[in-house]
């Protein structure tokens, strides 16, 4: 069994970087500058922004399903980065962070969940995918609750 973790597509977020701060605020978004090399996890590249890099902090619907498990929260995105992809490995943005892994069936209903301490994500993902009823897993930072990435079965 293999899995793939892919960052969000940058295209939907690109227009945000051309907006004024007032236009962003009208959408509930904010332009921020990372003040440290950790703590500003980009959901496109799946890497932390470096100090001095500009990001947009915005509200994002990560689990857009017609079930009680529809989910949305704040995320950071950076401009000019490609969507990161990892196969059978976890991205840098998972390192050192406790994760909440929410496993869903193809119908968007929650089937299982697991907390993964730093360094335990790979094993927890594999354990959850051992259940054939699990179609995908959404990873969230356990402490702050923000969406980290979608994890899907990889047939490659």
Outline the fold blueprint.
Blueprint: E1 2-6, H1 21-26, E2 30-33, E3 54-63, E4 71-78, E5 85-87, E6 99-104, E7 110-116, H2 121-129, E8 136-141, E9 147-154
Antiparallel strand pairs: 1-5, 1-9, 2-3, 3-4, 6-7, 6-8, 8-9
Description of the structure:
By secondary structure, this protein is mainly β. The mean pLDDT is 95. The chain has helices at residues 21-26, 121-129; strands spanning 2-6, 30-33, 54-63, 71-78, 85-87, 99-104, 110-116, 136-141, 147-154. The strands form two sheets. The chain has a six-stranded antiparallel beta sheet, with helices on one face. The protein has a three-stranded antiparallel beta sheet with strand order 2-3-4.
Distance separating the two termini: 10 Å
Measured by DSSP, the beta-strand proportion falls in 35-45%
Give the count of helical stretches: 2
Major beta-sheet overview = 6 strands, antiparallel
Query: Helix- and strand-based class?
Result: mainly beta
Morphology: globular
Contiguous uncertain segments of 5+ residues: none
The helix content is: under 10%
What is the strand tally?
9
The radius of gyration computed from the alpha-carbon positions, rounded to a whole number of angstroms, is: 16 Å
User: What is the H-and-E element order?
Assistant: EHEEEEEEHEE
Gist?
The chain has 2 helices and 9 strands, in the order E-H-E-E-E-E-E-E-H-E-E. The protein has 156 residues and is mainly beta. The strands form 2 sheets. A 6-stranded antiparallel beta sheet has the order 5-1-9-8-6-7, covered by helices on one side. The protein has a 3-stranded antiparallel beta sheet with strand order 2-3-4.
């Amino acid at each position: 069994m293999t899995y793939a973790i892919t960052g969000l597509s940058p295209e939907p977020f690109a227009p945000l970087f051309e907006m004024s701060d007032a236009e962003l605020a009208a959408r509930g978004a904010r332009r921020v500058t990372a003040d440290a090399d950790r703590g500003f996890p980009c959901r496109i590249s799946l890497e932390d922004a470096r100090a001095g890099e500009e990001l947009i902090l915005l509200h994002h619907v990560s689990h857009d399903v017609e079930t009680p498990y529809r989910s949305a929260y704040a995320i950071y995105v950076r401009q000019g980065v490609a969507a990161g992809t990892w196969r059978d490995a976890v991205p840098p943005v998972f390192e050192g962070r406790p994760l909440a892994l929410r496993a869903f069936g193809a119908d968007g209903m929650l089937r299982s969940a697991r907390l993964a301490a730093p360094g335990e994500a790979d094993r927890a993902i594999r354990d959850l995918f051992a259940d054939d009823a699990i179609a995908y897993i959404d990873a969230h930072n356990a402490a702050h609750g923000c969406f980290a990435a979608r994890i899907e079965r990889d047939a490659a």
